[in-house]
Task: inverse folding
């Protein structure tokens, strides 16, 4: 393999024009594992985590990786080894975090609709904190904790009601009227309720304003509002608050956007955090893993239909739904550089008009059998995949230097029906 220069994403091109992940040929992975396959760079994940951890070093803090972005056990173990905590949003993610070796006091449980069973499971595990999003949840958690003879540690997730500019309205969670969080003008009353409940310990304040955010102002404005609430809550007796959780949502680059400026972020927020005396929790997800992954696919054939030309790949919307669901842009490149470009739609084999990765895009002149990658798919790729058209879910591969390992095997046809009984056991009411 020719010499290459590694980019922050962990992917680079050799002198011969071949795209590689760290020291491993993507073509070799395709030959060994097949396509489609998600490929992740260990070095890129570590570097992203370490860079954020370093800029926050002036204040007591912990990074709680938002595992909904990518919950593969190998990725989780990689971050656990670096001292990360995790932010979970379901009982299934609690189970995954436990399997990956995270200690109970490194788990924060977020989410707008936690079931009584999930609350009980997390209480039994002894997690660090619940990010509570409504008065109903507060009362329900108090009841469940009381039945178990426990006191539940909570942070109030407050909607700071700041304006956030993100590429898609689905990723804005900090504006007024959003389903997430306690409305700002109800937060102090929620604190009074928490203080009055015998099985609740109010330990923190939390916000999460959205995802794929480039601007500093929403974080600064939200933190100012959160700290104002902290002062008001202290005045009514909330003396056990120790943590300030500002969420995550720091942008990564999908095209030519500038990623979040971490030094500027730290400069804007850390002086306020330091003055509060609170310990900082940050919940990055996409920021840690987004640029560290690609979806490796193979071109099946090209097709012309009227004035349109299509590149049809063996990966489909069931493998990566973001372009269809979010109108998301993902760069597409040939593994072996090709001369010339054509304006094409890059689509998959799924029987659905929404099955596409790019529309009217200038793409290298690849042909049947060529390998391509869909970039920046380390976050919200495999975790959002599904079995539409009875298509087995793809494999996941982790690269570490000059070696690679399959960290999720490709599903088989048998896996598709594994949970469906061959012989029905009929019941009557």
Result:
């Amino acid at each position: 393999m020719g010499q290459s220069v590694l980019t922050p994403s962990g992917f680079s091109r050799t002198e011969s024009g071949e795209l590689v992940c760290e020291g491993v040929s993507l073509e070799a992975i395709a030959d060994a594992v097949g396509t489609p396959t998600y490929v992740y760079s260990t070095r890129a994940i570590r570097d992203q985590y370490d860079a954020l951890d370093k800029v926050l070093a002036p204040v007591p803090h912990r990074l709680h990786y938002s595992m909904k972005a990518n919950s593969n056990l190998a990725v989780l173990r990689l971050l656990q080894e670096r001292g990360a905590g995790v932010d979970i949003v379901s009982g299934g993610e609690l189970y995954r975090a436990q399997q990956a070796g995270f200690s109970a006091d490194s788990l924060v449980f977020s989410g707008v609709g936690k079931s009584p069973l999930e609350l009980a499971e997390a209480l039994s595990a002894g997690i660090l904190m619940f990010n509570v999003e409504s008065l109903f949840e507060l009362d329900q958690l108090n009841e469940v904790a009381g039945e178990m003879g426990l006191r539940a540690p909570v942070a109030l997730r407050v909607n700071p009601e700041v304006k956030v500019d993100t590429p898609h309205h689905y990723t804005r969670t900090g504006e007024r009227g959003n389903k997430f969080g306690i409305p700002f003008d109800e937060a102090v009353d929620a604190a009074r309720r928490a203080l009055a409940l015998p099985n609740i310990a109010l330990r923190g304040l939390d916000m999460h304003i959205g995802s794929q955010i480039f601007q500093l102002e929403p974080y600064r404005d939200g933190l100012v509002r959160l700290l104002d609430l902290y002062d008001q809550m202290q005045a009514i007796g909330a003396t056990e608050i120790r943590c300030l959780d500002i969420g995550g949502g720091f942008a990564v680059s999908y095209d030519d956007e500038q990623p979040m400026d971490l030094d500027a972020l730290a400069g804007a927020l850390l002086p306020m955090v330091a003055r509060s005396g609170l310990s900082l929790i940050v919940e990055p997800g996409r920021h840690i893993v987004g640029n560290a992954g690609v979806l490796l696919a193979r071109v099946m054939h090209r097709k012309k239909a009227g004035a349109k030309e299509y590149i049809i790949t063996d990966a489909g919307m069931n493998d990566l739904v973001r372009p269809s669901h979010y109108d998301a842009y993902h760069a597409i490149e040939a593994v072996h550089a090709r001369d010339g470009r054509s304006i094409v739609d890059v689509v998959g084999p799924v029987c659905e008009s929404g099955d596409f990765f790019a529309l009217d895009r200038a793409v290298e002149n690849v042909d049947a059998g060529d390998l391509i990658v869909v970039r920046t798919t380390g976050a919200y790729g495999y975790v959002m995949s599904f079995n539409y058209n009875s298509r087995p879910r793809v494999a996941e591969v982790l690269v570490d230097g000059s070696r690679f390992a399959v960290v999720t095997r490709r599903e088989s046809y048998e896996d598709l029906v594994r949970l469906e009984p061959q012989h029905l056991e009929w019941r009557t009411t």
Observations:
- The radius of gyration is 23 Å.
